[in-house]
Design goal:
The complex is a heterodimer of chains A (162) and B (183). With 162 residues, chain A is of the alpha+beta class. Chain A contains six helices and four strands, in the order ββααααββαα. Chain A has helices at 19-23, 33-52, 68-74, 89-92, 112-123, 142-161, and strands at residues 6-9, 12-17, 94-99, 104-109. The chains are: A alpha+beta (162), B mainly alpha (183).
Chain lengths: 162, 183
């Protein structure tokens, strides 16, 4: 069974990916840090944008709706939709970083508390499942993968052009 | 009189800021793929409108458009004061205003003033920003963190970049223009 790209590392719940693999490209030359940083920034933005629209960044499908009572409660804090944001601390904790040595990018929740909340949403532990990260055998939605492919292809084209 | 706060996309000139690097890249892309003179005013207008629309979608979700400022706008320092309680003055006047997401939207005037100017020709220039005095002052306030508010600018300075997602919107649109003009 494929290992899940999403796990807890040093108390932080996160997702690590190889950009070539995410983009559906054959693995090529090691990507320089600035390209990895661009990919990290892009993926983080697109994930936040998708979640902000109450959809999963994994399959772009709408999240399970809120209960009537919770919807009523949430109206005081923000839009009454399942955008994973009440006071905002959890999404504020979502950060992106690169791991140059592994030519990879990590999206993770910075704090232990927010990591636990995120994992609860992600796997549907005590809350309805509202997936944030890909699990084993899954990937991010096509629009995000396409954007990463474009960033890599732009870089490779620049290398060819010299 | 308050100077307009703008972000210019122009053919880059010389070394320096990130803005110019982006502008250089756009120019290089334009010269590779397009005869500069073929860029129409309408192309630049389409580009601006799509870019601003995408920028506003992100801002509405609490996402900062400027790369160096982190992905999310900083939270309100004390939501019990601003935007305040549900039956307080601000939220009674603006019932859609909630503590989250932090979206720079109260009456809507500020974001509706975000606009563009274009100049076509051999050196196309697209300028995105604020020209109305009150919105210029508001953006300056966001930039400096006036009146104790946290800093939430939306127009990058010369040393800053738009987020990669917004840059991709720009370049993606330019590529579409290139394909169209080469038909």
């Amino acid at each position: 069974m494929a290992e899940s790209p999403t796990k807890i590392r040093n108390g932080k719940y996160g997702y690590e990916f190889d950009p070539y693999e995410l983009a559906g490209l054959d693995r090529g030359a090691k990507l320089p840090s600035d390209v990895l940083e661009d990919i990290a920034d892009f993926v983080q933005t697109k994930m936040l944008e998708t979640i902000g629209g109450a959809k999963s960044p994994v399959n772009n499908k709408p999240y399970t709706g809120l209960s009537k009572d919770y919807r009523k409660f949430k109206r005081d804090f923000g839009p009454a939709k399942p955008n994973l944001e009440l006071q905002g601390d959890m999404l504020d904790a979502l950060q992106a970083r690169i791991v140059s040595s592994r030519n990879s990018v990590v999206l993770e929740f910075e704090s232990g508390t927010q990591s636990k909340k995120a994992r609860n949403h992600d796997i549907g532990d005590t809350l309805p499942k509202r997936q944030i990260f890909p699990h084993a055998g899954e990937s991010l939605r096509p629009g995000i993968r396409q954007g990463v492919r474009s960033i890599i292809n732009d870089y490779l084209r620049e290398q060819d052009d010299g | 009189m308050a100077k307009p706060i703008v972000f210019k996309l122009t053919p880059g000139r010389g070394k320096g800021s990130r803005n110019r690097i982006i502008a250089k890249e756009i120019r290089a892309q334009l010269t590779k793929e397009l005869n500069l003179r073929k860029i129409k005013r309408s192309d630049l207008k389409d580009l601006a409108e799509e870019f601003i629309a995408e920028k506003k979608v992100q801002i509405a979700k609490g996402i900062s458009p400027i790369r160096e400022k982190g992905r999310r706008f900083p939270a309100y320092k004390d939501p019990s004061k601003y935007p305040g309680p549900k039956r307080g003055a601000i939220r009674r006047k603006y019932p859609d205003k909630k503590p989250r997401p932090v979206n720079l939207n109260l009456s809507g005037k500020f974001l509706s003033d975000l606009t563009y100017r274009v100049r076509s020709g051999s050196k196309p220039i697209l300028t995105i920003g604020f020209w109305k005095k009150l919105s210029i002052l508001k953006e300056l306030g966001h930039r400096k963190g006036s009146s104790g508010q946290r800093k939430r600018p939306i127009i990058p300075t010369a040393d800053e970049r738009y987020s990669v997602a917004l840059e991709k919107t720009l370049f993606g649109k330019l590529q579409k223009i290139a394909l169209l003009r080469f038909k």
